[in-house]
Design a protein that fits this description.
Blueprint (H helix, E strand, L loop, with lengths): L1 H28 L3 E11 L3 E9 L4 H8 L5 E11 L7 E15 L4 E6 L3 E5 L2 H9 L4 E5 L8 E10 L6 H7 L8 E2 L2 E6 L4
Parallel strand pairs: 1-9
Antiparallel strand pairs: 1-2, 2-7, 3-4, 3-8, 4-5, 5-6, 8-10
């Protein structure tokens, strides 16, 4: 009699476990997406600069987090340069990031955008502050002379909402909300270094 009760209970617990796992995985598929609309690498006298632009719309819950709950959001642009090698795995050459942190101050009724914990600018609207994320300033990702002349490099660019900057108590609750898994796919292109 006891064995007949345990089998359905075990089946019920297994079904409950699978349903819980499916609920955790499903929101990742519906996550808010960003798109890399353009990206290119430019050789300058100072070094190699990345120029990129993105397209996205913040969900209502992310706008609410910044403007009402005053939770600063950080958007990180990642750039990776690798040099392909025919005899082995690609050589990981350079990785660079730029983070724009946007916060709202109810006292001043301004949005503050901070780039890499340095340069700060104030904006009257969230849209104006987000312009620094949509079209980040060109920054040097590789010093002059750090890339091999005549070599071709694979370049990858990505934008994501960086949860590592959130308050620790809020990180746990953000895992169940797909809006907080905001990210673009990698945009990949090649760049050939001039021979000089």
């Amino acid at each position: 009699m006891l064995l007949r009760l345990i089998a359905p209970l075990r089946q019920f617990l297994l079904t409950l476990l699978l349903a819980s796992v499916a609920m955790l995985i499903a929101p990742a598929v519906n996550a808010t997406e960003a798109e890399v609309t353009s990206a290119k690498l430019e050789a300058t006298d100072e070094g190699y600069r990345i120029s990129a632009s993105f397209a996205f719309e913040l969900s209502h819950s992310l706008v609410d987090a910044i403007s009402v709950k005053e939770i600063p959001l950080s958007f990180t642009t990642e750039v990776e340069l690798t040099r392909p090698r025919w005899y082995w795995l690609d050589e990981k050459t350079i990785r660079s990031t730029q983070t724009v942190r946007i916060a709202y101050n109810t006292w001043t009724r301004n949005y503050t955008a901070t780039i890499n914990n340095g340069l700060q600018q104030n904006f009257a609207t969230l849209e104006d502050a987000l312009a620094l994320v949509l079209r980040p300033r060109r920054w040097i990702v590789a010093e002059k002379g750090s890339l091999t002349p005549g070599a071709t490099y694979n370049v990858a660019v990505k934008l994501k909402l960086d949860l590592s900057y959130l308050p620790k108590t809020f990180v746990i609750t953000s895992f169940n909300d797909s809006d907080w898994r905001f990210s673009s796919d990698w945009k990949r292109f090649t760049f050939k270094v001039d021979e000089k």
